[in-house]
Known about the structure:
The chain has a 4-stranded antiparallel sheet with strand order 1-28-27-26, with no helix packed on it. The protein has a 4-stranded antiparallel sheet with strand order 2-3-4-5, with no helix packed on it. A 4-stranded antiparallel sheet has the order 6-7-8-9, with no helix packed on it. The chain contains 1 helix and 28 strands. The chain has one helix spanning 5-23; strands spanning 28-40, 50-58, 61-68, 73-78, 86-92, 102-110, 113-120, 125-130, 138-144, 154-162, 165-172, 177-182, 190-196, 215-223, 226-233, 238-243, 251-257, 269-277, 280-287, 292-297, 305-311, 331-339, 342-349, 354-359, 367-373, 383-391, 394-401, 406-416. The longest helix has 19 residues, at 5-23.
Amino acid sequence: MKIGMNRLSLFIVLFTISILSITGMDAYALFDVTSVGEIEDDSDKLLDGVLGTAIYTVGDSTYVVAASENEHGIEIIDISDPTSPTSVGSLADGGSRELDGPVELDIATIGGTLYAVVAAYNDDGIDVIDISDPTNPTSVGNLAISLGLAQDGPYDVAITTIGGSTYAVVTGYSADGIEIIDISTPSSPAEVGQLKDSGTGYKCLAASHRCLDGPVDVEIATIGSSTYAVVAGSLDNGIEIIDISDPTSPSSTGRITDRDDSARELEGANGVAITTIGGSTYAVVTGTLDDGISIIDISTPSSPVYVSELEDGTDTGVCTAANGERCLDGPRDVEIEKINGLTYAFVVSYVDDALTIIDITDVSNPTIVASMYNSSTKELDSAKGVSIFTIGVSTYAVVGSSTDDGIEIIQVMARQI
């Protein structure tokens, strides 16, 4: 029996509405990504070799704090108008602060005051900076970290609150471990616990070995009633999950690497982001040397499960996103954002000089929905850091460029279907 065109059209519309109603998804599939603003280094700014970025708000204004590896300090930029970012404050090492070679940072509110905690790779320490007045960032405390080696190489910082106290979890790239620092009194940060790598050599040679060789990124996850640090071990090619519920006695809980399956996208594990989808907790990990990302179910921290991956493929040369190319060569940082009920991973790749947005709502089938690659007019060369913020109904990505010495602001607009 033939169905008339009007009836057929009505049937398709009703069927589509029914599917969206059942899944809870909005009718969005792809994104339009547009470069809307940028700011680069000059004699008045500390933006040479931007690595980490972090975003915060004061009143109605939004700011990004950028860490300058080469100029040994931080720059604070007002991004309230994304089309016209403006530098408003900066703070340099000056020889007395722990800001020589800053890599990553995190932001916390302690006692009503906003602070940036910066990991300084060359100084082997952290600096705690009051950023409540963006025009006048002030160092209030610092700490040289002692993980047992002369060069600890602090790399990343993640901040959490446990039992009413505020702690910074810091990765020591050269020391092969993490340090937990009580920053509840910002002027007097104090080391309270640490956990180091075990075994000999790289690649977690035994299942019981901790995978903390060359730790880079660290993120915090609350699962059940416990708090965990999820650490990317770049030289061990995997992640280590550490129970930090008792900050004075962190304990290794679980791990997953490419030791048992070299096809996993975990070689050179670098960036980590945590999200919850459908009641389960997942880690999205960038494999810098494998040119891809992995999605890992960490809902049971002692037994993480490798779920899926997405790799760059056989693309070579400079990514142009033409002919279906994937811009995932040398992925470094990853952040996760939920937009219109769906979950997306924002990945920056320093070889492809690109930002790639991946729909991970169906964790078993990650799908690229948009990419932006470098050009002579964008600050995306050797992209290494990404942060996400929202103003009104618009979502933006701030990408830090270590070679272009600046940041790029990219607007992400869902394309309705």
